[in-house]
């Protein structure tokens, strides 16, 4: 081996434990199974989606659930021109930060668009659901652009 050859080692990362979803995330996932999106109200009044168990500023437990809209605003996005095997689509798509109507904190999800040129910050998007929801974040298949919808 020459000094220019890097050392390599195969490694498989794994987590050998399981964790229950708990009452907050569990309720969020149950809502998704029912095609409903819920957030939680923080101590300062902000609505956080997906919900968190504890307030990010005060560490107080959060229990005030709020149903938010199925539509929202595209706050920021990143185009994926060459999807990988683990991505949700085999064709180009975008990851987006989406602030749903009634929420104050944006969530990350995939955006189905025909091209990068179709996306603009401030565009309106709507949740598109799988045919048979099962209580998983992928129950929202993606978000799709709303016709003529810029905020």
Automatic annotation (TrEMBL):
InterPro entries: ChsH2_C (IPR002878), NA-bd_OB-fold (IPR012340), Thioester_dehydratase-like (IPR052513)
Span of the signal peptide: none
Residues of the ChsH2 C-terminal OB-fold domain: 66-130
One Pfam family matching this protein: OB_ChsH2_C
Protein name: OB-fold domain-containing protein
Annotated organism of origin: Parahaliea mediterranea
């Amino acid at each position: 081996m020459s000094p220019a050859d890097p050392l390599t080692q195969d490694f498989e990362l794994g987590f050998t434990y399981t964790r229950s979803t708990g009452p907050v995330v569990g309720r969020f996932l149950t809502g998704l199974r029912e095609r409903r999106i819920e957030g939680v109200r923080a101590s300062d009044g902000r609505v956080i989606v997906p919900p968190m168990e504890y307030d990010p500023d005060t560490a107080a437990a959060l229990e005030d659930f709020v149903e938010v809209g199925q539509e929202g605003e595209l706050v920021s996005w990143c185009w994926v021109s060459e999807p990988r095997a683990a991505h949700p689509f085999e064709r180009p798509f975008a990851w987006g930060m989406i602030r749903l109507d009634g929420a104050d904190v944006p969530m990350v999800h995939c955006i189905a668009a025909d091209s990068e040129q179709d996306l603009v910050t401030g565009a309106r998007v709507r949740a598109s659901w799988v045919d048979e929801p099962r209580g998983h974040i992928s129950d929202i298949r993606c978000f799709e652009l709303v016709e003529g919808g810029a905020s």
